[in-house]
Every structure is written in C-alpha cells, then in structure tokens.
Amino acid sequence: MAKYQAWLALILALAIGAVTLIANSLLSENPLFPTSLGLDLRGGSQLTIQVQPTAAIPTITEREMEAVQSVVEGRVNGLGVSEAIVQQLGNDQLLVQLPGINDPQQAERVLGGTAQLEFRAQKVGTEQQLLVETEILQEHLADLAQIQDNLPPTGAMDDATQAEIDAIQADITTSEAAILDLFEPSELKGDKLTDALARPGNGTQWEVVIEFNNEGANDFAELTKSVAGTGRGLGIFLDNRLLSAPRVDVQYAELGITGGTAVISGNFDAVSARDLEIQLRGGALPLPVEVVENRTVGPTLGRDSIQRSLYAALVGLALVLVYMAVYYRLPGILADIALVVYALLTWAAFVMLGVTLTLPGIAGFILSIGMAVDANVLIFERTREELRAGKTLYRSVESGFYRAFSSILDSNVTTVISCLALFFFGAGLVKGFALTLGLGVLVSMFTAFTCTRTLLFVALGMPQFRKPEWFYPGISRLTAPRSATP
Asked: Residue 416 CB: number of other CB atoms within 10 A?
C-alpha cells in the first residue's frame, strides 16, 4: 500500500505542476513557456515557393535547396516577422508561414526573385563611418528583437506596436543602405562564384573557402589588390545586406589574391562559418523562385476556430467522462480522474516543449483522448472477464492490467509509428497533427498504467470499496451457484 501512496503523491505533484504551468502560460504577461499558435489560428500569410531549375543547374539537389532556403530566410527576416517558419516541401519547394502578415502581395514581392550576391571594395576614408553605421544597425536589430520577444503568445499586436515595428524596420533598411553606400559597386557578382565551403582552421577557429570561375578570379584579384593592406574591407553583400567585410593582408597589395580561390578567416566557429557558406552558395545560385500559392488567414477566422475547437474538446471530454462513469461505475469514475490528469499533463507537455498549436494539432489532441480511454476500456473488460471466471476482486484487477498490457502496447506502438511517419515525411499542418497525437498517446500510456492503476489499488485498500458490485454490476447473479435440478 505504501508503494501506491508514493505513486499517488507523485501523480498529485505532476497534476499541480501541470496546472501551474498552464496557468502561467495563459494568464502571465511574461510566461515562462508561452503558448504558440499556428498560422491557421493566429492569422497571417502562407506562401509555397517553387524553385526553378536552369540550364546551368538542371537538377535541384538537397545542397541547392539548403542554399535557397537560407536566402529566403534572410528575406523573411527583412519583413520583421516574429516566429516565421521556412521549411522544405518536397524536393524543390519551400513552405513559408508569416504570422501577422496580412498583405500577401508584399510578402510575394520581397520573397520572389533570384538572390543577388555582390563583392564590393570599401571606399577610401570610410573606415570610421562603417563602424558607426554597423553599430547603429545592430542597435536597430536589437530593438526589433526585443519587441518581437515581448509580443503576446498569440502574436497579435495593437496598432501602436505595429507602427513601432514598421518604424524600426524602416530604420534598418536605411542603415543597410547607408552601409551599402560605403562600398564601390563592382562587376564581381554571385554568378562568378562557383563554390563556398566551411572547414576547420587553426585551433578552434573555422574558415570559409570560396572559389571563382576564370572571369571571377580576375575580378577578385583586382578587388583584393585595391584594398590589400589599407585597413579597408572587401564587402560581401547578399540582397544589399552586408554578410561580411574581411580585410586583405598587405602581402597581396601588388597582385591581389590570384588563382580564383581565397580563404575568409576571422572569429568564426562551426555554426557561423557554416551559415556564411550557405549564404554565399545561395547568392551564387542562379535559381529563380516563383510563388505558386499564396494563402491568407484572417485573425477573426483564427479566433472562431479556437472557440469551436475548444467547444468540441470540452463536449467530447464530457461525453466520455459520463459514459465511463455510467458503464464502468467505480473504475469508470477513477478512469475519469485519470483522464483529467492526462489532459493536464498533455497540455503542459505541449506548452513546455513549445508545440505550435494548429487546428489539425487540436484535432490530434482530441483524438488522443479517445486513445487514452481505449486503454482503460481494455483493462476494465479484462477485469470483468476475470471476475466472471470466479477470481477474487484484487486478483481480477491485477490480472486485468497484466492481460491488457500487450494489447495496449501493440496498439499504441503502431499509432506512434504512424505519427513518426507523418511527422518526418509530412509537412506543415500534418506535422502538427502527428506531433500532438503522438505526444498524447505516450502520455496516455503513462496515465493508464500509473494513474488508473494507482487509484484502483488505493480504492481496493479501503473496505467500503472492496465490493465486486462496484466494479461489475450484477456480477453476484452471474457467479452465484445454481441449485441442482432433479
């Protein structure tokens, strides 16, 4: 009995913790784990971008898609969107979700077109000005990040906040244009860059190796010769945004860096070097992109969807609770308590893991409630079979759990496998459904074999509940000895 009391204390602590976490995410102005809503619930734009092959690159591989995705992510950041999502869709498409953006034409203009990579030599006498402009740009970016971090969990914002974001974004654009103006235009574009590769350098430092074609090699030599040993940088711009401005050593002042290959070194770690590599390759790819689908979801539709989904979840949960209590009596009531604990733990898991809730995700959660009840139904039916066979109440409950375990495990494992397949091979809203259903199934197994089991055996430890009729109405008539007939 002491073992079940310890389990009961653990379950109670988990339930209290779950309620505290959920209340914090819903009621606190600065929640520890904010609830994240998907595009279909909070409103915004969703675009499907098709990457077009060219004569130079007839087949689009994973490497090309990775580079194009980096370029699109950079352009999305320029929109000032909080919690935007850019992910691959199939072999040659990107899915872009922009919460809070209700002007799809603006997003299409910004995200469309081929990336523009350019190498520029810094103008004479602009060294100090570049430092000042770079510091101003970093301040604007920090201000924008702070506002986005303080947005409510739903992503909704008032007109004043939107105006402030627009003003900061305009300042960022102005600063980027000012930095661009400190560098001389050149003929060295991304189409002359053949490859970029991040690799380990000296010690813990990383470096990025870039390679040019023959024409690009000559242009690169001239550019590096003009800035070598002067303290001025060689600006690398992607879509008019400065990626890096490495300085060229004085030893290249006479001929520049020849051979068409150069190494960009500095304070790079593995992550930053890899990021620069992907950005350079993205700018070097002459791959046009086309927006093939542009869908907008209004915030009003999102609010209506949330309300209807909540109503459906509550009504479904209530019907299940009533059915279990009426049909299975005491075990059904205890299963209802376990089901409430399951719902709290699952919701808390969604919040703590940062699951983005979507309409299919909520549907997966509601479906997992049915999966959670299914485990209890199997246990209780096995228990009734044992009671009909004439076993004692305690042995019947114990055998019910033991005999139902394999069936529950098999059904839940197959469901989890299906969820994994949907999550890894699906995209967008399908992933949300798979994630919430899979998490719900795992939590339901925990509650079925810990919460329900603990409550049942604690009840069996109380004399007033140690009656077969509480577990199987009419069992006394089924198991009563029959008189012999002449």
From this structure: 17
Give, rounded to a whole angstrom, the gap between the first and last alpha carbons of the chain. 49
Contact 441, 412 (CB under 8 A): yes
DSSP one-letter code for 157: -
Q: Tell me the two tokens of residue 276.
A: 């620069």
For residue 365, the one-letter residue type is F
Cα separation values, 443 from 284, 293, 430, 450, Å: 47, 37, 20, 11
* One-letter identity of residue 155: G
94-108, 200-214, 437-451: the lowest-pLDDT one: 94-108
Rounded Cα gap, residues 333 and 339, in angstroms? 10
Q: What is the pTM of this model?
A: 0.59
Contact between 436 and 361 under an 8 Å Cβ cutoff? The reply is: yes
Q: Closest Cα partner for 185 from 211, 219, 212, 213?
A: 219
Alpha carbon 190 to chain centroid, angstroms: 32
Nearest 10 degrees: Cα torsion 300, 304, 309, 312: 180
Q: Decide if 257 contacts 222 (C-beta within 8 A).
A: no
Please state which CATH number belongs to domain 2-36+298-474: 1.20.1640.10
| Model confidence pLDDT, tens digit, residues 341-377 | 888 898 888 888 877 777 777 777 777 777 778 888 8
For the chain, the maximum distance between any two Cα atoms, rounded to a whole number of angstroms, is: 123
Nearest alpha carbon to residue 348 among 439, 472, 234, 428: 439
Q: Residues 150-187: pLDDT tens digits?
A: 766 555 566 777 788 888 888 988 999 999 999 998 88
Pairing of strands 183-184, 117-122: antiparallel
**How many angstroms separate the CA atoms of 381 and 365, rounded?**
25
Q: Is 234:122 a contact under the CB 8 Å cutoff?
A: yes
Rounded Cα gap, residues 476 and 390, in angstroms: 10
How many Cα atoms sit within 13 Å of 409 on the Cβ side?
A: 7
Unique residue bearing structure tokens 């459906």 = 312
Coil, helix or strand at residue 259: coil
Using alpha carbons, select from 368, 448, 452 the residue that is nearest to residue 409. 448
Cα separation of 430 and 414, whole Å? 18
Angstrom distance (rounded) from CA 284 to CA 444: 50
